[in-house]
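Final report, closing paragraph on structural work. Over the funding period we assembled a curated collection of sequence-structure pairs, and we close with a single example.
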Amino acid sequence: APLIAQYGEQFRSPRWRLSNIYTVVDKSGTKMPFRPNAEQLDFIVNMSERNVILKARQLGMTTVSCLIYLDDCLWRPDTRATIVAHKLDEAQEIFRSKIKGPYLDLPPLLRRAAPLLRDNETTLEFANGSVIRVSLSARSGTVQWLHVSEYGKMCAVYPNKAKEVRTGSFPAAEQGVITIESTAEGNEGDFFNKCNDAQLSAASGDELTRLDYKFFFYSWIG
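Its predicted structure, as stored:
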Protein backbone atom coordinates (compact mmCIF):
# COMPACT_ATOMS: atom_id res chain seq x y z
CA ALA A 1 0.00 0.00 0.00
CA PRO A 2 2.74 2.58 0.75
CA LEU A 3 4.28 1.81 -2.65
CA ILE A 4 0.99 2.35 -4.44
CA ALA A 5 0.47 5.55 -2.42
CA GLN A 6 3.84 6.89 -3.54
CA TYR A 7 3.95 5.69 -7.14
CA GLY A 8 0.27 5.30 -8.04
CA GLU A 9 -1.68 2.38 -9.49
CA GLN A 10 0.74 2.30 -12.45
CA PHE A 11 3.25 0.73 -10.06
CA ARG A 12 1.32 -2.55 -10.32
CA SER A 13 2.43 -2.86 -13.97
CA PRO A 14 5.72 -4.74 -14.53
CA ARG A 15 6.20 -2.89 -17.81
CA TRP A 16 5.83 0.48 -16.05
CA ARG A 17 8.29 -0.57 -13.34
CA LEU A 18 10.82 -1.72 -15.93
CA SER A 19 10.76 1.72 -17.52
CA ASN A 20 10.74 3.83 -14.36
CA ILE A 21 12.40 2.46 -11.23
CA TYR A 22 15.68 0.79 -12.26
CA THR A 23 19.16 2.07 -13.06
CA VAL A 24 21.85 0.74 -15.39
CA VAL A 25 25.49 1.56 -16.11
CA ASP A 26 26.15 2.62 -19.70
CA LYS A 27 29.23 1.73 -21.77
CA SER A 28 31.12 4.76 -20.44
CA GLY A 29 30.53 3.62 -16.85
CA THR A 30 27.90 6.25 -16.11
CA LYS A 31 24.94 5.25 -13.96
CA MET A 32 21.61 6.31 -15.44
CA PRO A 33 17.89 5.52 -15.25
CA PHE A 34 16.96 2.49 -17.33
CA ARG A 35 14.73 3.34 -20.27
CA PRO A 36 14.24 0.43 -22.70
CA ASN A 37 15.61 1.05 -26.19
CA ALA A 38 13.55 0.01 -29.21
CA GLU A 39 14.97 -3.52 -29.29
CA GLN A 40 14.59 -4.07 -25.55
CA LEU A 41 11.00 -2.80 -25.64
CA ASP A 42 10.25 -5.08 -28.59
CA PHE A 43 11.51 -8.03 -26.57
CA ILE A 44 9.57 -7.03 -23.42
CA VAL A 45 6.35 -6.82 -25.42
CA ASN A 46 6.81 -9.88 -27.62
CA MET A 47 8.78 -12.40 -25.58
CA SER A 48 7.50 -15.97 -25.46
CA GLU A 49 8.21 -18.94 -23.22
CA ARG A 50 11.13 -19.90 -25.47
CA ASN A 51 13.18 -17.11 -27.05
CA VAL A 52 16.27 -17.13 -29.24
CA ILE A 53 17.90 -13.77 -29.96
CA LEU A 54 20.40 -13.39 -32.81
CA LYS A 55 22.07 -10.00 -32.52
CA ALA A 56 24.62 -8.09 -34.58
CA ARG A 57 25.78 -5.77 -31.81
CA GLN A 58 25.48 -5.06 -28.10
CA LEU A 59 21.89 -4.01 -27.52
CA GLY A 60 21.44 -4.72 -23.84
CA MET A 61 19.46 -7.93 -24.21
CA THR A 62 21.16 -9.50 -21.19
CA THR A 63 20.49 -6.27 -19.28
CA VAL A 64 16.77 -6.30 -20.03
CA SER A 65 16.49 -10.00 -19.13
CA CYS A 66 18.25 -9.38 -15.80
CA LEU A 67 15.87 -6.53 -14.98
CA ILE A 68 12.78 -8.54 -15.99
CA TYR A 69 13.95 -11.36 -13.71
CA LEU A 70 14.92 -9.04 -10.83
CA ASP A 71 11.56 -7.30 -11.04
CA ASP A 72 9.68 -10.60 -10.99
CA CYS A 73 11.73 -11.84 -8.02
CA LEU A 74 11.00 -8.65 -6.09
CA TRP A 75 7.23 -8.72 -6.60
CA ARG A 76 6.42 -12.43 -6.98
CA PRO A 77 7.32 -14.74 -4.06
CA ASP A 78 9.27 -17.96 -4.55
CA THR A 79 10.57 -17.04 -8.01
CA ARG A 80 13.82 -18.62 -9.19
CA ALA A 81 15.88 -16.92 -11.91
CA THR A 82 19.31 -17.82 -13.30
CA ILE A 83 21.56 -16.06 -15.81
CA VAL A 84 24.19 -18.36 -17.32
CA ALA A 85 27.44 -17.09 -18.83
CA HIS A 86 30.38 -19.05 -20.24
CA LYS A 87 33.01 -17.58 -17.89
CA LEU A 88 32.83 -16.94 -14.15
CA ASP A 89 34.26 -13.42 -14.30
CA GLU A 90 31.73 -12.51 -16.97
CA ALA A 91 28.91 -13.98 -14.86
CA GLN A 92 30.05 -12.00 -11.81
CA GLU A 93 30.24 -8.76 -13.84
CA ILE A 94 26.70 -9.34 -15.11
CA PHE A 95 25.64 -9.85 -11.51
CA ARG A 96 27.34 -6.69 -10.21
CA SER A 97 26.21 -4.32 -12.94
CA LYS A 98 22.86 -5.69 -14.07
CA ILE A 99 21.33 -7.26 -10.92
CA LYS A 100 22.90 -6.19 -7.64
CA GLY A 101 23.58 -2.61 -8.75
CA PRO A 102 19.99 -1.97 -9.89
CA TYR A 103 18.67 -3.52 -6.66
CA LEU A 104 20.90 -1.39 -4.42
CA ASP A 105 19.91 1.73 -6.39
CA LEU A 106 16.21 1.23 -5.69
CA PRO A 107 14.67 3.85 -3.38
CA PRO A 108 14.81 2.71 0.29
CA LEU A 109 11.03 2.26 0.38
CA LEU A 110 11.28 -0.32 -2.40
CA ARG A 111 14.23 -2.15 -0.86
CA ARG A 112 12.41 -2.36 2.47
CA ALA A 113 9.50 -3.98 0.66
CA ALA A 114 11.85 -6.69 -0.64
CA PRO A 115 14.71 -7.13 1.86
CA LEU A 116 17.65 -9.48 1.30
CA LEU A 117 18.33 -12.70 3.19
CA ARG A 118 21.50 -13.56 1.25
CA ASP A 119 23.87 -11.43 -0.77
CA ASN A 120 27.15 -12.67 -2.25
CA GLU A 121 29.09 -12.43 -5.52
CA THR A 122 26.61 -14.53 -7.49
CA THR A 123 23.28 -14.59 -5.62
CA LEU A 124 20.55 -12.39 -4.18
CA GLU A 125 17.98 -14.18 -2.02
CA PHE A 126 14.97 -12.19 -0.87
CA ALA A 127 12.81 -12.50 2.22
CA ASN A 128 9.85 -13.42 -0.01
CA GLY A 129 11.59 -16.67 -1.00
CA SER A 130 12.74 -15.51 -4.44
CA VAL A 131 16.32 -16.04 -5.63
CA ILE A 132 18.21 -14.56 -8.59
CA ARG A 133 21.71 -15.71 -9.40
CA VAL A 134 24.37 -15.95 -12.07
CA SER A 135 26.11 -19.22 -12.78
CA LEU A 136 27.94 -21.35 -15.32
CA SER A 137 25.01 -23.79 -15.16
CA ALA A 138 21.52 -24.05 -13.70
CA ARG A 139 21.44 -27.80 -13.19
CA SER A 140 20.38 -27.72 -9.55
CA GLY A 141 16.71 -27.15 -8.81
CA THR A 142 13.90 -25.70 -10.87
CA VAL A 143 13.96 -22.17 -12.30
CA GLN A 144 11.15 -20.03 -13.67
CA TRP A 145 13.51 -17.78 -15.64
CA LEU A 146 16.68 -18.81 -17.51
CA HIS A 147 18.85 -16.54 -19.65
CA VAL A 148 21.91 -17.93 -21.44
CA SER A 149 24.32 -15.21 -22.56
CA GLU A 150 26.45 -15.62 -25.72
CA TYR A 151 25.28 -19.18 -26.23
CA GLY A 152 26.63 -19.25 -29.80
CA LYS A 153 30.14 -18.48 -28.55
CA MET A 154 29.71 -21.10 -25.83
CA CYS A 155 28.73 -23.73 -28.40
CA ALA A 156 31.65 -22.82 -30.70
CA VAL A 157 34.45 -22.29 -28.17
CA TYR A 158 33.36 -24.11 -25.00
CA PRO A 159 31.44 -27.17 -26.24
CA ASN A 160 31.57 -28.93 -22.87
CA LYS A 161 29.96 -25.93 -21.16
CA ALA A 162 27.36 -25.79 -23.92
CA LYS A 163 26.60 -29.46 -23.33
CA GLU A 164 26.20 -28.77 -19.59
CA VAL A 165 23.69 -26.01 -20.39
CA ARG A 166 21.86 -28.21 -22.90
CA THR A 167 21.61 -31.23 -20.58
CA GLY A 168 21.28 -29.44 -17.24
CA SER A 169 20.12 -25.83 -17.46
CA PHE A 170 17.43 -26.23 -20.11
CA PRO A 171 15.74 -29.15 -18.28
CA ALA A 172 15.85 -27.14 -15.01
CA ALA A 173 13.81 -24.41 -16.74
CA GLU A 174 11.52 -26.79 -18.62
CA GLN A 175 8.37 -25.34 -17.03
CA GLY A 176 9.63 -21.76 -17.13
CA VAL A 177 10.83 -19.13 -19.62
CA ILE A 178 14.11 -19.68 -21.48
CA THR A 179 15.97 -16.99 -23.43
CA ILE A 180 19.19 -17.66 -25.30
CA GLU A 181 21.07 -14.87 -27.04
CA SER A 182 24.29 -14.47 -28.96
CA THR A 183 26.04 -12.98 -31.94
CA ALA A 184 26.45 -15.53 -34.74
CA GLU A 185 29.34 -17.98 -34.33
CA GLY A 186 29.57 -20.23 -37.37
CA ASN A 187 26.98 -22.44 -39.02
CA GLU A 188 26.83 -25.38 -36.64
CA GLY A 189 26.09 -26.10 -33.01
CA ASP A 190 23.00 -25.91 -30.82
CA PHE A 191 22.62 -22.12 -31.02
CA PHE A 192 22.78 -22.21 -34.82
CA ASN A 193 20.28 -25.08 -34.91
CA LYS A 194 17.84 -23.30 -32.59
CA CYS A 195 18.08 -20.09 -34.65
CA ASN A 196 17.54 -22.06 -37.84
CA ASP A 197 14.55 -23.98 -36.48
CA ALA A 198 13.00 -20.79 -35.07
CA GLN A 199 13.39 -18.98 -38.40
CA LEU A 200 11.76 -21.89 -40.23
CA SER A 201 8.89 -21.88 -37.72
CA ALA A 202 8.41 -18.13 -38.19
CA ALA A 203 8.46 -18.47 -41.98
CA SER A 204 5.90 -21.27 -41.90
CA GLY A 205 3.36 -19.09 -40.14
CA ASP A 206 2.37 -21.98 -37.86
CA GLU A 207 1.37 -21.12 -34.32
CA LEU A 208 4.20 -21.80 -31.89
CA THR A 209 3.78 -24.19 -28.99
CA ARG A 210 5.24 -23.21 -25.60
CA LEU A 211 8.28 -25.39 -26.40
CA ASP A 212 9.00 -23.78 -29.80
CA TYR A 213 11.63 -21.04 -29.82
CA LYS A 214 10.50 -17.63 -31.01
CA PHE A 215 13.08 -15.93 -33.22
CA PHE A 216 14.28 -12.39 -32.58
CA PHE A 217 16.85 -10.78 -34.90
CA TYR A 218 18.31 -7.34 -34.17
CA SER A 219 20.61 -6.12 -36.96
CA TRP A 220 23.21 -3.39 -37.25
CA ILE A 221 20.74 -1.03 -38.91
CA GLY A 222 17.85 -1.63 -36.48
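The first helix runs from residue 2 to 7. The longest strand covers residues 50-55. We thank the funder for supporting this effort.
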